[in-house]
Amino acid sequence: MLFKYHAIDADGHERDGTIEAPSQEVAVSALQRRNLIVSVIDFAEKKSLLKLDIPFFSRVSNKDVVILSRQIATLFEAQVSTLRIFRLLAGEIENKQLAAIISSVGDDIQGGSPISKALARHPKVFSDFYVHMVRAGEESGKLSEIFNYLADYLDRSYDIMSKTENALIYPIFVITVFFAVMALMLTMVIPKISAILVDSGQAIPIYTKIVIGVSNFFVNYGVFALIVLIALGFYVWKLGKTKHGRLVLDGLKLSVPYVGDLYRKLYLSRIADNFSTMLLSGVSVIAAIDITATVVGNAEYEAILAEVSADVKGGSSISDALARHPGIPGIMVAMTKVGEESGELGKILSTLAKFYGREVSNAVDTLVGLIEPIMIVLLGLGVGILLAAVLIPIYNLAGAI
C-alpha cells in the first residue's frame, strides 16, 4: 500500500513524501529507521473496494521467494553493491507486499544492518533456515552461491509440495461431489419418494427403512449435525495450535495407512534436503539440526531432531543419535554413518534427499491412480444403493396394482 507522510528530519527540516509498505506500522518503522520523526501518515489515495490490496491475493508465495533469490544471486555475481541490489529489486518486483518488504530490508541495510538481520525482521517470508543460510554466506563471503543454493532448495521444495497438492485436488473434488450428491439425495429426493411408500401401507424392506431413517435424521437434525461438525473442526484447529495437540495430530497423520507413509517420506526428504543444504553452505552441524527441526513441518520429527541435537551436543555421532529413533529408517542412519566416516555428509544427504524426493513423487502418482477409480466407484455405489432402496419397493408396489 502507498502512504503519504509528513515528517521532520534530524536537522529539523520538514519532509513530505510517499512510501510503499504492507501496513501503516511498517511504513512508520521504515521512516523512523531513516531518522525521520513522523507527524502525519495516511493512505496516498482513497481506494475503492475493487482497488484494495487484499492480503490473501497479494501474499508472498514460495515461488516469489525462489525468483527473488535467483535475482539476488545474479546481481551479486554481477558485483552490484548490496544496497543497490535491494533498491533495484524493490522497484521491479510485481508483488506489492514483497516489494514493500524488500524496500524495508534496503532501509535496514542502509542503516548499517547486515542482510541476515534485515531479513530476520520478516519471519513470515524468510524462515530461520533462510536467514541462517544468508548469515553463513555473509561469514564465508559467498553470498551469490548461498542465494543460488537457497533458490535451488526452495525450487525442489516447491516442486514436491505443489505436485502433492495438485495431485490431491481431483480426489478432494470427487469426495466433495460425493458428499454433496448424497446430502441432496437424502434431504430432497428420498423424503418425497419415502412418503409414497409409507402412504401405500405395504411392507417396507429393512434396507429401505434404514435409508428412510437416515434421510429423516438429516432432514430433522441436519443443521445440528452441521453445527457439531463445524465445532469439531474448530476444536481440532485450536488443538493444532498447542504443542501437545500438534504432536497428537501429526502422529495421527503418520499413522494413516499408505498416506502416513507418503507423509513420512516427505518429511524425511525435507530433513535430508535442509540438512545437506546447510552443511554444504558452511552452517555448523548443531545449528543445521536445530534449524531443520523448526522447518520440518511435523511435531513428531521436530521432537526427534531436538533429541538428536541434544545427543550430538553430548558427544554422540549424528548416525548413533538418529539410530535411537524408530521414526528414522535404517537407510538414513547407514548413509549418515558413511557420510560421517568419509567427510562427505552434505553430499551423501543430498543424494538421500533426491532419493526420497523420487519416492514421494512415485507415491503421489500411485495414490492418485488408486483414489480416482475408487472414489468414482464409491460415488456410483452410494447413489445406486439409495435409489435401489426406494425404487425397488415402488416397482413392487406398481406390480401389485
TrEMBL record:
Instruction: Give yes or no: UniProt keyword Metal-binding.
Output: no
Q: Which UniProt keywords apply?
A: Cell inner membrane, Cell membrane, Membrane, Transmembrane, Transmembrane helix
* Record bears the keyword Membrane: yes
- Compartmental location: Cell inner membrane
Regarding the membrane, this protein is recorded as: Multi-pass membrane protein
Which GO CC annotations does the UniProt entry carry? plasma membrane
Highest taxon of source: Bacteria
Which residue ranges run through the membrane?
A: 167-190, 210-237, 374-395
Q: Which protein family is named in the record? A: Belongs to the GSP F family.
- Protein name, as recorded: Type II secretion system protein GspF domain-containing protein
